[in-house]
């Protein structure tokens, strides 16, 4: 490929992904629909089967699935630089919006304002909606419902920084035991990826190496920026199920340790529903609250770095992995545990910090109906929540 052609491809990817970054509301499932319409139907950058297989890989990996799909499409279109450009275009709009929101929150000190309480109620509604959809798909049988129940009980009764990780690992082992003979459709064709196996192995080594080395470096240096990078990197590495599941991990990392208050945390989570793009950019808000715009950029790099390393490290091996029933079985157990972790997070900290009276519950019911039954866009729910929160303070 000539240099001019490479530059044209990169500019095209940047233009298209940035437009998607400004317009993709509605969460990861909606993002995948936007990608399909733009990249597959309109521009035909990939065929339907390859896109479905790429989505399957990104659902298999921890991290932000829609962002990983976007990175993968960029990589297959124009190599590693294409993946980086695709990520920047899709992510930057929401990163900038949330950093600005955090700086305004710090400057004007309106964390206790009524509209902030309204955004916290929006967080209740959004997570409840996510749970309903995920539970239907990820816990269809009694065995997986039982795994989810175990995750709820353990996560609520033992609220430590390592509980969620332990639950996910144990659920993966149980899923492996129960579903290792689960039948799979093996009719799909192999995909071809512009990444060497050597580079893939280096990325995987780097992924696991940072996961082990960062906590050790954090203890040895006692530097705030190293601690921040470690917390966000670990959250990005261990989250199965998309952006909503990162909530409890980030809450455990930053609220009990005093980095930011629960009010600030939930206000930012509510605001994150109002912006397009991946929900993982919520990390940019947290980083900016803690350490200004520099903290926001550091947090964004740290939480998305695992997604990059994993997608680059697994693309060449996906043809083999996706046909392994044992790995598939472990993932079924992990996904069931994710539902339980989400339900626990819905109760604490979201519900206990947001639904403080009967009128709060009534308002949440109205917002839930607007989102689920009337199918109104998420930004309408967020705007209604903010305005309604102002009125609730006057009642």
UniProtKB/TrEMBL annotation:
Belongs to the chromate ion transporter (CHR) (TC 2.A.51) family. It is found in: Cell membrane. GO terms for molecular function: chromate transmembrane transporter activity. One of its GO terms (cellular component) is plasma membrane. Keywords: Cell membrane, Membrane, Transmembrane, Transmembrane helix. The lineage of its organism: Bacteria, Bacillati, Bacillota, Bacilli, Bacillales. It is a multi-pass membrane protein. It holds the Pfam family Chromate_transp. The keyword Secreted does not apply. Its main location: membrane. The chain crosses the membrane at residues 80-103, 115-135, 147-179, 199-220, 270-290, 297-318, 330-348, 379-394. The keyword Transcription regulation does not apply. This is Chromate transporter.
């Amino acid at each position: 490929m000539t240099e001019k052609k490479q530059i044209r491809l990169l500019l095209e990817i940047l233009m298209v992904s940035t437009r998607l970054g400004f317009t993709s509301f509605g969460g990861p499932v909606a993002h995948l629909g936007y990608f399909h319409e733009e990249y597959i139907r309109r521009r035909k950058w990939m065929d339907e089967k390859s896109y479905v297989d790429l989505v399957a890989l990104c659902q298999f990996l921890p991290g932000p699935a829609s962002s990983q799909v976007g990175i993968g499409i960029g990589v297959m279109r124009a190599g590693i630089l294409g993946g980086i450009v695709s990520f920047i275009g899709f992510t930057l709009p929401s990163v900038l919006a949330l950093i600005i929101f955090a700086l305004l929150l710090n400057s004007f000190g309106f964390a206790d304002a009524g509209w902030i309480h309204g955004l916290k109620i929006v967080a209740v509604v959004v997570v409840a909606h996510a749970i309903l959809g995920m539970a239907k798909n990820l816990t269809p049988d009694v065995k997986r419902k039982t795994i989810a129940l175990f995750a709820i009980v353990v996560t609520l009764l033992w609220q430590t920084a390592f509980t969620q990780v332990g639950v996910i690992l144990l659920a993966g082992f149980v899923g492996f035991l129960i579903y290792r003979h689960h039948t799979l459709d093996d009719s799909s064709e192999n995909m071809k990826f512009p990444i060497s196996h050597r580079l893939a192995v280096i990325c995987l080594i780097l992924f696991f190496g940072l996961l082990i080395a960062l906590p050790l470096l954090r203890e040895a240096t006692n530097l705030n920026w190293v601690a921040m990078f470690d917390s966000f990197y670990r959250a990005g590495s261990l989250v199965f199920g998309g952006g909503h599941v990162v909530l409890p991990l980030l809450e455990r990392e930053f609220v009990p340790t005093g980095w930011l208050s629960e009010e600030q945390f939930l206000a930012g989570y509510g605001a994150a529903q109002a912006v397009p793009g991946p929900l993982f950019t919520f990390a940019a808000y947290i980083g900016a609250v803690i350490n200004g715009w520099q903290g926001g950029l550091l947090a964004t790099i740290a939480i998305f770095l695992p997604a990059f390393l994993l997608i680059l490290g697994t693309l060449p091996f996906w043809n083999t992995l996706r046909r392994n029933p044992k790995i598939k079985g472990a993932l079924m157990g992990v996904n069931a545990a994710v539902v339980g972790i989400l339900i626990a997070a819905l109760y604490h900290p979201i519900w206990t910090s947001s639904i403080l009276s009967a009128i709060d519950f009534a308002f949440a019911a109205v917002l839930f109906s607007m989102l689920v039954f009337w199918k109104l866009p998420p930004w309408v729910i967020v705007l209604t929540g903010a305005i309604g929160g102002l009125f609730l303070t006057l009642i």
